[in-house]
Amino acid sequence: MSPPTAVPRQPQRKHPVSAEVFASIDMRVGVVQDVEAFPEARKPAWKLRVDFGPGIGVLQTSAQITNYAADALLGRRVVGVINLGTRRIAGFRSEFLVLGAVEADGSVLLLAPDGESAVGRPIA
Prior knowledge:
Layout: H1 19-23, E1 27-37, E2 46-51, E3 58-63, H2 70-73, E4 77-81, E5 87-89, E6 92-94, E7 97-98, E8 100-102, E9 108-110
Antiparallel strand pairs: 1-2, 1-4, 2-3, 4-7, 5-6, 8-9
């Protein structure tokens, strides 16, 4: 007889925030311009350079999305939060947060706009 399979725990709902707090989060459409390996990171990750268009420009981030091949990321539209400040990750300056859905196995499925939304467009 085999042991019972563990059922993945569902994430709990977070505490409510005001509409004003939510509106202060600057989410934008970007397009991945460059992908590099990041062997210095504790967990497998890519270094991404993403163009958020005129007025914002190219920002870089570290992303634990190695379930995507580098060539599958190049040219891909993504959604990023660009006003959370910067963080140092293994000596690398991470300037935004790329958004994705976290699966039960810990992998991340990237969020992207439907269609060909222009680079730099805000997310509502």
